[in-house]
User: What shape does this take?
Amino acid sequence: MTDDASRRPDPADRPDSADRPDPADRSDSAGRSDSADRSGSAGRSDPAGRSELRASDADREQVAEQLREALAEGRLDMTEFEERLEATYAARTYGDLAPLTRDLPAAGSAAPVNLVKQPVAEGEIDWSQRIGGEPTSTGGFAIWSGFGRKGRWTVGERFTAFVLWGGGEIDLREAHFASREVEIRLFTIMGGINVKVPPELDVTVKGFGIMGGVDDRATGAGTPGSPRVVVRGFALMGGVGVERKLPRAERLRIKDERRREKLERRDERRRELEERRERHGRLHEERLERHRERLEDRLDRLDRHHHRRRRYGDDED
Assistant: This one.
């Protein structure tokens, strides 16, 4: 009896529940170990020294296309896009290209889609996103100086500007509009005001000048959904000009396309030259082979001729 009691463990000696390992902790540690193993195996699966390998024109163009998509989606502003694009075409290795898209989603990844809004074709302006809101400016004024309205700003339903012995610039290429009908009234005395509008905008230019002029060549219809902008100008010994001009981002896109087409044409010419060189080499080898065959044939004939002469000479002797 005494021996059995002495062999039983004392309850006080049993490990407390707080000291016991928690199953959740075991699962967490296992998950961390598993993820660490996976990340380690993924890191080991990368080819050694890939960052030091030389990048091709196709690699640089792929990164440039991803940067253009990021600019169109608003992930990059124009300054960042220009800096990264310049670094892309100057990159020599994969290690130079990798940091340029490290903070951008992978090309072709799914983006959230608005089921109500209709898709906009590439290169067209989605005017529904640029109409409405509080105006950030309703006028401009300059005497012996100048003023400017550029970039992303909201034009009021009525915008009035006056310039005396000075100049003004109004850029609507990236502007928003407080209303679908916008009237811009411009007055200049011995000065000038220049208005830049995108090609897709519906613009009507009216006005007259005294010893000056109002340029109305930009008058024309815009794309569907475009706001209507009426520019009324008066110029006394000065001028009011309205010109249609592509936005800077669009000009850069066209420039990139031309550069890409130039690279493609250069690659095509290179392939043509290589094919021509190979064809010329094959023709040269064929000519040499025919020449060798003719020489061998002549040598054979000469050998036979000498052999006959020696035989006939022996017979005469």
